[in-house]
Amino acid sequence: MVQIDGSHHDWFEGRGPKCVFMGDIDDATGRVYGRFYEYEGTIPAMDSFKRYIKKYGIPMSVYLDKHTTYKSPAQPMGDELPLSEFGRASKELGVEIIYANSPQAKGRVERLFKTLQDRLVKEMRLKGISSIEEANRFLVRYLPVYNRRFAQKPNERDNLHIKAGNVDLDTILCIKTERTVRNDHVIQHNKKLYQIENRIRMSTIIVEDRIDGTMRIRHGKLALTFHEIEQRPKKQKEPPPLRLGRTPKPSPDHPWRKGWSKRTRVTKACGDMEKVPPLSHSNSTTMG
Hints:
Blueprint: E1 2-9, E2 19-26, E3 32-37, H1 42-56, E4 61-64, H2 85-92, E5 96-99, H3 107-127, H4 132-150, H5 169-172, E6 174-180, E7 186-189, E8 192-196, E9 204-210, E10 215-219, E11 222-224, E12 226-229, H6 255-275, H7 281-287
Parallel strand pairs: 1-4, 4-5
Antiparallel strand pairs: 1-2, 2-3, 6-9, 7-8, 8-12, 9-10, 10-11
């Protein structure tokens, strides 16, 4: 069994960006493997696991926490439990997945991280290491020395790791997404359009986003040829035609309407004054 986890820490003590140490530790021997990555996610976990397998072989089981990288947050449908992409890849490799219910259950890998945050940080400080690339090159020399000093002999001599052999790790350790094929043999993936060149009948295909950043499209075991095409321009909506012969009515809060209301009140007041009959000469005499 191999315990896998990520340690978020200021590994370069401010000399470089914060990063994650993705660590794998063999539960039987305490042998350690790991690499630094910018974040803890599916691609870093797959890349680290692939390198572990190529070096030591496929383990019988992996012990993981319930981070969304390893355990899918989707609700189960029926008796089938949803799998994350890492869980799906582990299942295809024949690796049993065991989830820890608490941080204390992963005591071995947690103690490893505390040790490395002390010893490894000091070693990298002495070497002036300040980037992920430099740190990973340093691990190639550091981890074998660490394992010779701290790894233990297993109770049983039999190595239960299985050599990868002819297993296509790139096809398994990748992110697989099902896409619908249009009538013109075009699919949409990550906001881009791809034209499939093979002339076969199919309704869905599988897109593989691989660790190295490349992409593959498959239908079953058949690898399809494709190329990216430009997005089709969206039709712009034309403004509605103007209705001639009809003056638009201004809104109640329109400045022109407010000004008109004020002028209307003034004009009305002046008009009422004009309607008052003038004083006659006889009336003026009487009053005098």
